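user: can you give me the structure for this one chain? C-alpha cells are fine.
assistant: on it. calling the predictor now.
[tool input]
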Amino acid sequence: MGNFAKWIGGGLGWAVGGPIGAIVGFALGSLFGNTENVQTSQSYSRRTTEADFKASLLVMMACVMKADGVVQKKELEVVKRFLITNFGEDGALEALQFLKNLLNQPINEVEVASQINQYMNYSAKLQLIRLLFDIAYADGEVNTAELNVIRRISNVFNISTPDFESLKAPYVKQIDHNWAYKALELEPSATIEDIKKGYRRMAMKYHPDKVANLGDDIKKSATDKFRSINEAYEQLKKQRGFV
C-alpha cells in the first residue's frame, strides 16, 4: 500500500465507517488491491481528524467535478495543486489516481454530506464548501449542475443562505457589483457602522484558527477566505469613503 493510502487509512476517524468509509475503501482497494488500513477498525472517534476532512473533501470534489459529465482541465489543475500541497509530490500521484477511482464510482452526495454533517463542526463545513467553490470556479465560471451539487451539499450541512452567498461572493466579483456586501453578509443599504460590525463578525467567523485542528495545510488554505473578507471591507471603505 502506498504512502497516500497509509496516510488516509491510518488517520481516518469517523470516516472509516458509513458511506464515506465504503467509498474510500473501494477506491483504495481498486488502487492497491488492499483496504486493510481502512476497514479494520470497528469503533472510531467522533472527533474530525485531518484525514477525515481530506477524505471527505476528495469524495465531495468528485461529486462536483462529474456533476455535468465532463471533467475540465482547469478543474484537474486546481485539484492537482491541492493534492500536492496536502500530500506532497509523491503522495499527490497516488491521491490523483484515488480521485480518478472516485470519479468512476456512483456517489450519492446527499448520503455522504449527511455523514459529514453528523460529525464535522460548522467552521470545517464552511471551509469544505469554500474549497468546492474553488473546483467549480476553476475556469472562471460555474455551470448550473455543479452549483446545484454544491447547494445540495450546503443544504444538508445546514449552511445558512448568507453564509453560502458569502462563500460564493469572491468568485463572482467580476460580474456582481454587490459582491463585497454579500461577502460581509450585508445589504447595500448597510450603514457605515453596520459595515464595521459586519467586518468584525466575519473576521471572527472565518479566522484560520477556527480550522487549526484540521492541519496546517487546511489552515493555510482557510486564509484565502480571510483575505477575501479583508478585500471586501477595503472595497467598501473606498466606495463609501470611510476609514
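assistant: here you go. The two ends are 57 Å apart (CA to CA). The chain is about 70% helix and 0% strand.
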